Amino acid sequence: MSNIQDKVVIITGASSGIGEATAKELASKGAKVVLAARREDRLKKVQEEIQKNGGQAIYKVTDVTSYEQMEELAEYALKEFGKIDVMINNAGLMPLSPLYQKKINEWDTMIDVNIKGVLYGIAAVLPSMRERKSGHIINVSSVAGHLIGPAGSVYSATKFAVRAITEGLRKEECVNNIRTTIISPGAVTSELPETISDPELKSAIDEFYKVAIDADSIARAIAFAIEQPSDVAINEMIIRPTVQEL
Ligand SMILES: NC(=O)c1ccc[n+]([C@@H]2O[C@H](COP(=O)([O-])OP(=O)(O)OC[C@H]3O[C@@H](n4cnc5c(N)ncnc54)[C@H](OP(=O)(O)O)[C@@H]3O)[C@@H](O)[C@H]2O)c1
Q: Does the keyword Oxidoreductase apply (predicted)?
């Protein structure tokens, strides 16, 4: 039996891209997935597709920037499925811009979603994982969590933060048998570049993304981390298109 079978997995940002692909991959391997994001129509579509293929999925409309909603999400998973084995903090956005443009609202949103959303996700599931002395928290960072480019200061700052938080979490919770994994994708086909408001920068990124790999590639890496025996933690993975130099 696969080590993913019957695991209860919460996935934020499950309405598109990497989150959607991961939900489908894990459900196909027998996980009970709990889909979270803001767009209900998209969550419903992902749920229906999973169910049509014989998988188990429920969803809850959730904004990761609300701690209250994240707690309700964890409570919903516990009520419906009785436990939380894996939390995947994947929701994120990437409105790149140079600092001089002072896109303060975009900085605030990135900090709220990419950093606070991850912290709230951890906070919502830790109590039940600590109680069971079992669990796995997977946080999605980026190659931009290792490297900084022009127009990427704030995005990179949030993704460096995800890595710092996840490593701190590992140090605190390894004694409680809680695994942590940092996933750092390179260019992956998704809706992420749509969050760039500057048209020139958007076309430069579209050009860069011509080498992008499918979101399934990241879903398979996440499945690999989950399916290891419980005494093995895959703490960090970088997954790039082979031809991506950056
Ligand atoms: N694609 C890449 O090349 C790449 C590379 C490195 C890292 N990443 C990271 O991968 C993660 C997933 O991104 P993606 O590429 O799959 O992009 P995507 O297709 O745009 O997906 C982003 C997801 O985040 C959700 N989201 C955004 N704000 C939210 C909020 N406030 N509350 C709840 N959910 C929210 C969106 O759902 P709703 O709009 O329905 O809420 C959507 O499901 C992000 O953390 C991103 O930084 C992506």
A: yes
The yes-or-no verdict on residue 1 having pLDDT over 70 is no
Residue extents of the structural domains in the chain? 8-238
Helix (H, G, I), strand (E, B) or coil at 189: coil
Does ligand 1 lie within 6 Å of residue 90's CB atom? Answer: yes
Pairing type for strands 178-185 and 135-140 reads parallel
Catalytic residue annotation: 155
Q: How far is the CA of 117 from the centre of ligand 1 (A)?
A: 11
Q: What is the mean pLDDT of residues 39-56?
A: 98
Evaluate: CB of 197 within 6 angstroms of ligand 1.
Answer: no
pLDDT digits (tens, 9 = 90+) for 71-104: 999 999 999 999 999 999 999 999 999 999 999 9
Closest CA to 119 of 176, 151, 72, 158: 158
CATH class held by domain 8-238? alpha beta
